[in-house]
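Run folding on both entries below.
>entry_1
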Amino acid sequence: MLDEPSRYADTTSTLLSRMLRTALLWALGSGILAVAGWALAGHPVQVAGAAGGAGLALVFLAGGRSVQVLARTRNLGAAMTVFLTQLLVLGVVGGLIAQHGGAGRWGMPAATGVLTVALGWTAGVVVAGRRRNQPIYERRAQE
């Protein structure tokens, strides 16, 4: 006998999508604040460094959604490949920053952009978690 589809919505996927969107909005806002803060310093190289660091962190964190979607479709090989590629790119870029100007004019602004976006993302996850009821177990339809 075939199982009937669940009468309940896929609450886990819906809640994770909302949480990721909220976290991304907070991360974007904090990245804009970091760039604006360095813009007040007045040097275009510092503004570009902050924008580059914030942009890199935003792309990395937004890519987490693709890993989640691939994992939900039970394509774990592709999900792990995407995640490990993201880590590799982040490591290579971090290594290049450390070798070629990490202590220069744009190194500190780039690091500030990355850190600010990461803190904004974390704050967004906390805010989303406190605002929404997140059941640990999904309810199953009673037959």
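>entry_2
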Amino acid sequence: MARSIWEAQTYVSLRLAEQQNPSVEPGQPVPALTLGDAPPMKLGTNMVEGPDSWTYQSPVGDIVIPYASEKTTIQVGAPFGLGRSLLIDAAEWVQVAYLYHDWAIGDMLTYAGEPDPHSQDVQHTERRRYIRLGWELAIDAIVQAMAFLPEGDQGGDQVPDAEIWSQFGRSAKLADPHLVTRARLEEDLETYRGILEDFDRNYDPVD
């Protein structure tokens, strides 16, 4: 079960990327992650409405998305969902965050070089909104990974290996042993939030 539409599409894209790279084994380089492969969700085509949820008939199997959890993610501003994911492991969430980070950085650099980046016209406003979305998704993906950290003072300083169950996630962790340490995740979260705050100060937040 997915907690949101964003999570369902991300999960499908991850699994499709994994299928396209079947030779990846622990210790080998992790393939470039892409998130554009999941077929669009369309009611009457691959989205079936039920009494309490949608069923997304995806290429990797049916995924149930409860209406209530999707509504909650919108209300609280957590695109991927609240709590811990049952579909995507901690290391994969970090890779998703890095992908959105790269997209947002590239868009920011391109946007800053335009003649009038502070313009309030529709085109510039939408560009800034898109850049903000990239950072918001990167931030939420790190928060998703942090949900797997042990709780309490004696909880430990990294996500346990048992919480990294996917082939893609295990390969990513072995390639970067510090990928899901508490210190790294906290640093990534602080950095991403800081960059978004600076962006808002420079160009004014877009609601």
